[in-house]
């Protein structure tokens, strides 16, 4: 956990609240928060890089799609990103470069399974200091 | 949300206000209601009441807690012709469910061997995040057969006995499953995972039949006091998660296309008679069939492992399925509404089907007693087998609770567990536990759950399900 994301209580699952001075940082911090829930972020190495492209109808759905894409890469290839660079972002498109590694389950500490990123109470709000997003994960 | 009205000692109502199409009704004792009011689950009951075509009430069972979209413990029946189906009313783990197996083994015989047995099962059934490789690598054609035939595929491929199918809800296969609407991603995620337990609250539990409250019913089910039973709790794994994810996207668009207003995006839905609704139903049935096959393969892995370690033959061990229930599902069923039979789509999100005696959907062996309802508690206390009643058919579309229900969030549970050795605490209580996930023990600690006895007694006293038997854990494999 770092100063940019924190977990909020939700009885059955887990909520994440993320902050960022701009949208790029917000999406990046959300992705790192998600990864940190799966394993110790600082134990990951940047061995491989991947480009992901996602589209959605608004910025909230775009955030969910981006996070769902990261989960998919983990579920299929065991790939987790340590560093994330947002290459392009608009309200409905996002292109990012992920640097990380396909982890070895059994070698890395895996904290928990995350089934999906839900749409429940999904929101992004803007204030004087930047952006704040909330989302709930199905555990 | 308007004020809660007490209807009886075990039933409460949220009056219909605003855009709600029906009132909400929650089964709970006063004590449980005090806990329930601490989170947002009652608001979720009211939200579900907005689904087009919802009939009678947005219902909730006493294990209700705050989920996403639907509350966990929520039941909603929608008209099969004019109503909607919502993937959020089923959840990501489609056909997450429980099965209960009986044995001829006495608890006294097993107790000294429990560490070896739990260790053996822990190794025999892959568990934890992304667990895979339980059985031979399945081809795409194999998986397609699993999605269409469910537990029947497992039996045909040597994982169990044909008579087992009679004791699985819907004989372990939902008809009209449509594998053509399953995405490539869902296939990819499902292929390596058949026969795996997964993570989180999934488990295998070896327990003792500790109390019998209804001798006749217990006899018909083959339950004997002092004997060992085995619970298996898991679902459709990554395939189900992906199907839900894919179809929430489809139904979000359908919600707009058909001009449906719901208060939470997670309640996205599609009319049952639309292409989107039919496609989701066909896909959900595939995932449900994967889950039925998964629990069947796991049972077979358990049997092989136990026969080996106990050096026994199958006849002496007598491992037999009592019942297998789905508790995250949507089903087209016929129920009496205003005294007349009507086809409805019953969403059970963290709720168990609980059909009463006489139902043609039950095997002949159980038709005069009613359907077994399996209600596991937390890993440190107890679990129950109950039976569905006529009153369940009248009031809850034949549904009841599915477990204890969480009372602490995962972060609260972690805080509560700090400085404690949960393994040692459970071992002192005579329960040997092995867990794969590093956070599982803390997040799934007994304190995180409501008192399952209070939940079960609520449904018993409300007349929805009858208590038959209580089980206490001896050994647990957690995902």
What does this molecule look like?
The complex is a heterodimer of chains A (139) and B (479). In chain A, strands 1, 2, 6, 7 and 8 form a five-stranded antiparallel β-sheet that branches. In chain A, a hairpin with a 5-residue loop joins strand 1 and strand 2. Chain A has helices spanning 23-38, 59-77; strands spanning 5-8, 14-20, 48-55, 79-89, 93-102, 116-117, 123-127, 130-138. Chain A is an alpha+beta fold. Chain A is globular, with a radius of gyration of 14 Å. Chain A has a domain at 21-113: Archease domain (Archease, Possible Chaperone, Chain: A, domain 1, 3-Layer(bab) Sandwich). Chain B is an alpha+beta fold. Chain B has one domain: tRNA-splicing ligase RtcB (Alpha-Beta Complex). Chain B has 16 helices and 19 strands. Chain B has helices spanning 30-36, 41-48, 107-110, 114-124, 140-149, 151-156, 184-190, 215-221, 237-257, 275-310, 314-317, 390-395, 410-417, 422-428, 440-443, 452-461, and strands spanning 5-8, 11-14, 24-27, 58-65, 72-79, 84-85, 97-106, 203-212, 227-234, 270-271, 320-326, 328-337, 340-349, 352-353, 372-375, 383-388, 399-400, 432-435, 465-478. In chain B, strands 7, 8, 9, 11, 15, 16, 18 and 19 form an eight-stranded mixed β-sheet that branches. In chain B, strands 1-2-3-4-5-13-12 form a seven-stranded mixed β-sheet, sandwiched between helices. In chain B, helix 4 packs across helix 10, helix 5 (140-149) crosses helix 10 and helix 9 runs antiparallel to helix 10. Chain B is globular, with a radius of gyration of 21 Å. The model of chain B has no long low-confidence stretch (mean pLDDT 96). The interface between A and B is large, with 31 and 44 residues.
């Amino acid at each position: 956990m770092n100063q940019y994301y924190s977990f909020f209580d939700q009885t059955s699952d887990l909520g994440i609240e993320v902050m960022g001075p701009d949208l790029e940082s917000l999406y990046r911090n959300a992705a790192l928060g998600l990864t940190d829930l799966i394993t110790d972020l600082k134990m990951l190495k940047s061995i491989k890089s991947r480009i992901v492209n996602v589209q959605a109808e608004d910025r909230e759905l775009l955030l969910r799609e981006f996070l769902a894409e990261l989960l998919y890469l983990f579920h299929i290839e065991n790939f987790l990103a340590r560093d994330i660079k947002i290459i392009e972002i608009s309200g409905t498109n996002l292109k990012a470069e992920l640097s990380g590694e396909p982890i070895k389950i059994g070698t890395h500490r895996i904290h928990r399974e995350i089934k999906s990123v839900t749409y429940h109470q999904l929101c992004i709000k803007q204030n004087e200091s930047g952006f704040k997003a909330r989302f709930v994960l199905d555990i | 949300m308007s004020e809660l009205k007490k209807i009886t000692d075990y039933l409460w109502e949220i009056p219909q206000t605003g855009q709600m199409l029906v009132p909400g009704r929650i089964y709970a004792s006063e004590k449980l209601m005090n806990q329930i009011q601490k989170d947002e689950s009652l608001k979720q009951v009211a939200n579900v009441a907005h689904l087009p075509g919802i009939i009678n009430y947005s219902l909730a069972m006493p294990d209700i807690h705050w989920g996403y979209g639907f509350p966990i413990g929520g039941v909603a029946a929608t008209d099969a012709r004019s109503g909607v189906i919502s993937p959020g009313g089923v959840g990501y783990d489609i056909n997450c469910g429980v099965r209960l197996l009986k044995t001829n083994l006495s608890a006294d015989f097993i107790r000294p061997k429990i560490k070896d047995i739990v260790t053996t099962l822990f190794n025999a059934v892959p568990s934890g995040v992304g667990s895979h490789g339980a059985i031979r690598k399945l081809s795409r054609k194999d998986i397609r057969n699993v999605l269409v035939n469910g537990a029947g595929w497992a039996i045909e491929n040597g994982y169990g006995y044909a008579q087992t199918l009679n004791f699985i809800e819907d004989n372990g296969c939902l008809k009209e499953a449509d594998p053509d609407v399953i995405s490539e991603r869902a296939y990819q995620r499902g292929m390596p995972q058949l026969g795996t337990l997964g993570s989180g609250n999934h488990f295998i539990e070896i327990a003792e039949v500790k109390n019998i409250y209804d001798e006749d019913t217990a006899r018909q089910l083959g339950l004997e006091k002092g004997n060992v039973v085995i619970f298996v709790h898991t679902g459709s794994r990554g395939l189900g998660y992906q199907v839900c994810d894919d179809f929430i996207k489809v139904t979000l668009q359908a919600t707009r296309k058909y001009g449906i207003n719901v208060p939470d995006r997670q309640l996205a839905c599609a009319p049952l008679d639309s292409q989107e609704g039919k496609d989701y139903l066909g896909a959900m049935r595939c995932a449900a069939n994967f889950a039925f096959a998964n629990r069947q393969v796991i049972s077979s892995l358990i049997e092989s492992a136990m026969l080996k370690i106990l050096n026994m033959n199958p006849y002496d061990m007598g491992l037999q399925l009592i019942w297998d229930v789905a508790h995250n599902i949507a089903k087209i069923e016929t129920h009496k509404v205003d005294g007349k039979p009507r086809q409805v789509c019953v969403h059970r999100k963290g709720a168990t089907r609980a059909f009463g005696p006489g139902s043609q959907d039950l095997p002949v062996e159980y038709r005069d007693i009613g359907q077994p309802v399996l209600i596991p508690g937390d890993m440190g206390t107890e679990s129950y087998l109950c039976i569905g009643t006529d009153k369940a058919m009248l009031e809850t579309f034949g549904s009841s609770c599915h477990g204890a229900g969480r009372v602490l969030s995962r972060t609260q549970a972690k805080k509560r567990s700090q400085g404690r050795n949960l393994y040692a605490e459970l071992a002192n209580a005579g329960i040997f536990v092995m867990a794969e996930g590093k956070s599982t023990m803390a997040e799934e600690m007994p304190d995180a759950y409501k008192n399952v006895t209070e939940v079960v007694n609520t449904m018993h006293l409300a007349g929805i399900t009858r208590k038959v038997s209580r089980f206490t854990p001896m050994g647990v494999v957690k995902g």
